[in-house]
Amino acid sequence: MLSLMSKKINPEHCAEIADPDKTNFVVSLVIMIGIMLSYIPQHYRIVKRRSSEGISPYFVLLGTTSASSAFANILALPTSRNDWACCSVNSPFSCFAGLLGIGQLFVQWLCFFTILMLFLIFFPRATPFAPPEDLKSRPSYRTALIVTSIAIFHALSLAVITTILGATAPEHLQSYANVLGICAAILTSIQYFPQIWTTWKMGRVGSLSIPMMCVQTPGGFLWSASLAMRLGWAGWSAWGIYLITATMQGILLIMGIIFEIKHKRKGGDTSDDDEEGPSDEEETAVEERATERSPLIRKDSSKA
Q: What separation in angstroms does the CA of 163 have from each of 32, 83, 157, 170, 173?
């Protein structure tokens, strides 16, 4: 997609980024690696518990579409296109350093998309660990499927539109990038409201990872500053997103910590890590028992 968005080489810009600032390079590289590592606790927590219980589907939807918009935004920015074009004349190190901003957003998009897939795969069903009565007030599996479908369709649509626009009307990419940045900022600013509400209503974090938020909240402020240093005020639509994200995530983090402390004081189980969902064999057995018993239950009910 970037190859279609490449433009004529700007010698002045290429000379400017030919010798990247070492400090900014190290910070940007650490941030990119940190983004990837920061999501691992969340991925691990869902897989270990075999449940995405406690994670709002609307939080996942808004987060994935926001990440897709942000990634498309930085791809469409003229600065990114200039950086990509300079790779043909600058050294591999200068090229890598110049594309770190794009790499950061790609890693962030990939990690959140992984959460989306895990959310669907491990969506809680009716089991002895979560009877049907306990799931009535929770989102349905159909909602999870709809959320996943919308997120995938949104990402594919942006990929197609960005590629076509870059190949046929590159002069409009800046305006397009600004629109994407505004959309991403709006999605991000409201992304955490469904999750904050879900966590508040449950009174616990469920499958939501506190370690992930502990890393990402300060990292979000650092990442925003790094993008601001790289893109300047012209790239406000890119780095402003992560300033908002870090602020909202901090609120959710504080709420989660408060709930964990309350559970400690009540003497309850302070960690949901051990509250693993049923295995595949257990789920199959439960379904078979439900199928065998349901007709008998209905007969008994009719006799009564």
A: 24, 17, 10, 10, 10
Write b or e for each residue in 216-231: b if 16 or more Cβ atoms lie within 10 A of its Cβ, otherwise e. bbebbbebbebbbbbb
Q: Are 42 and 212 in contact (CB under 8 A)?
A: yes
DSSP states along 182-239? HHHHHHHHHHHHHHHHHHHHHTS-TT--HHHHHHHHHHHHHHHHHHHHHH-GGGHHHH
Of residues 102 and 242, more confidently modeled: 102
45-52 mean pLDDT: 92
Question: Cα–Cα distance between 26 and 4 in angstroms, integer?
Answer: 29
**Cα 225 to Cα 277: distance, rounded to the nearest angstrom:** 40
The three state secondary structure string of 152-185 is HHHHHHHHHHHHHHHHHCHHHHHHHHHHHHHHHH
CA angle 252–68–208, rounded 5-degree value: 25
Helix H or strand E segment including 126: none
Does pLDDT of 304 surpass 50?
Answer: no
Contact residues for 39 (Cβ-Cβ < 8 A; gap 6+): 111, 112, 114, 115, 212
Percent of the chain with pLDDT over 70: 80
Cβ-contact 114, 41 below 8 angstroms: no
Query: Which token pair is 271?
Result: 């960690």
pLDDT (mean) for 164-179: 85
The candidate with the shortest Cα–Cα distance to 31, out of 116, 115, 113, 106, is: 106
- More confident position, 5 or 142: 142
> 198-229: per-residue pLDDT in tens?
988 888 888 888 998 888 888 778 778 877 77
